[in-house]
Design goal:
single chain, 118 residues, mainly beta
């Protein structure tokens, strides 16, 4: 059974930083694309960043230059370093897996709340 467990969310001030982590189990982690979506109540889920099995990365325009996605295949972990946070980054962040960089998500984590506010 595939499990994705996010951690690292919380409250940050504008301009601050947070680092999200996602621990994966029950899957061949190194062969999967991993990524992060975020969702605000009343809005569609938005792709934030993804990383392919060979390290290719892709970001939403709204986070380019501020967020960095990375993975540690030895630990079955994927991370999202979020810098220069803005109030618009406030959302629930979900970790996901996919078969490839162009595939739809096949498994989701439960989500972690990120709130950016002074």
């Amino acid at each position: 059974q595939v499990q994705l467990v996010e951690s690292g969310g919380g409250l940050a001030q504008p301009g601050g930083s947070l680092r999200l982590a996602c621990a994966a189990s029950g899957t061949t982690f190194s062969s999967k694309t991993m990524g992060w979506y975020r969702q605000v109540p009343g809005k569609e889920r938005e792709l934030v960043a993804r990383i392919g099995s060979y390290g290719y990365t892709d970001y939403a325009d709204s986070v380019k230059g501020r967020f960095t996605i990375s993975r540690d295949n030895a630990k079955n972990m994927v991370y999202l370093q979020m810098n220069s946070l803005k109030p618009d980054d406030t959302a629930v962040y979900f970790c996901y897996t996919a078969r490839s960089i162009s595939s739809s998500a096949d498994y989701w984590g439960q989500g972690t709340q990120v709130t950016v506010s002074s």
